[in-house]
Amino acid sequence: MGGIPLPGELGERARDILAGRVEPVPARDAATVVILREGPRSAEVYLLRRKASMAFAAGAYVFPGGSVDPRDTDQAVAWAGPSPAAWGEVFRADGATARGLVCAAVRETFEESGVLLAGPSEDSVVADTTGDEWEADRLALIDRSLSFADFLDRRGLVLRSDLLRPWAHWITPEVEQRRFDTRFFVAALPPGQRTRDVGGEADQVAWVRPADALDRARNGEIFLMPPTYRTLGELSAYEKVPDVLAAEREIVTLMPKIAEVNGEIHIVLDDDYRFGAA
After folding, report:
1. For the whole model, what pTM was predicted?
2. Angstrom distance (rounded) from CA 38 to CA 243
């Protein structure tokens, strides 16, 4: 049987939603960034394992990302590269939403990995984000005492939207209590920068080949959410980072559905009930 079965209370909630007795929770705009680097054999991706105490995706290995902060749409954010309007065309969003998504992508990547896709000018990028002052700013961004616009302004930096490439669009299934409307981006690790274990929502981090991550998931060694699994499957087709960045992507919105399969409630993605296949 395909799909992911929904037992117990989650299954009952799914039945209530299908019957119209319960309204789904609205999905919040969010952004996720797949950071890539060249490994010894082929391209590698950066994954974080979410703490078991987290309310959403506990214990799962994920890419850096998170919800859009209302201040991410601030037009004061210094910007270089494709405009919010251009990103809006790619993701079928209005300009303000697109601005927020790109800013959230860059901000969350810095918060969760220490990697900053910004530079002193439109054709440069920060070479090093280690040190106590950078860490203080990162923590201030996390607790929202510092806005991303003020952070960039204070350091004389501009967001480099040209360092991002669009990859996918996933919406959390309607049965979930916490839902996200997430745009996936890919980006290369900037020269000179390095990721670091920054704590917070994650308790482990790893650089891994997409194919190896999939093998570990199939063997039960790690847990991957379906969007992460699917994205890794897509990325495993590319050998080098430039190949990923050069890929032509048509962004199709994917939202796993609630369906009854042989009398049981399942979450399914495809018409034939195969879910998360690479």
Report:
1. 0.90
2. 11
